[in-house]
Amino acid sequence: MANEFHEIENSALKLNVKDRAKLATRLLKSLEKRKGNNIEKAWIDVAIRRKQEIESGVVNSVPLEEAIEKARSLIFE
Questions:
Q1: Please, are residues 42 and 53 in contact by the beta-carbon 8 Å criterion?
Q2: What is the pTM of this model?
Q3: What beta strand segments (E) does the chain contain?
């Protein structure tokens, strides 16, 4: 079984970017279906918690442009 996994993994890594992305999306969707609405509920819970943190002053929001610039600098350093 482990050998079969490595063969599939190696084959998948040889795919072009578009096909790898398509495969990754299908694999993730197959996992989401197994968990039902738990993922969606978890994201809603995170959004509600973050909103409450901002409204209470526990955290400060950052302008979108600043957040994108910081993310780019972290990725492309």
A1: no
A2: 0.43
A3: none
Task: Please tell me the predicted confidence (pLDDT) of residue 22.
Answer: 93
- As given in the structure block, the two tokens for residue 66 are 């600043």
- Distance in angstroms (rounded) separating the CA atoms of residues 42 and 29: 16
Residues 34 and 26: beta-carbon distance below 8 Å: no
Distance between CA 23 and CA 9 in Å, rounded? 11
Taking only the tens place, the pLDDT of each residue in 10-20 is 999 999 999 99
* Predicted confidence (pLDDT) at residue 53 exceeds the cutoff of 80: yes
Q: Residue 19 in contact with residue 25, Cβ under 8 Å?
A: no
Domain ranges of the chain: 1-35, 37-77
Angstrom distance (rounded) from CA 28 to CA 20: 12
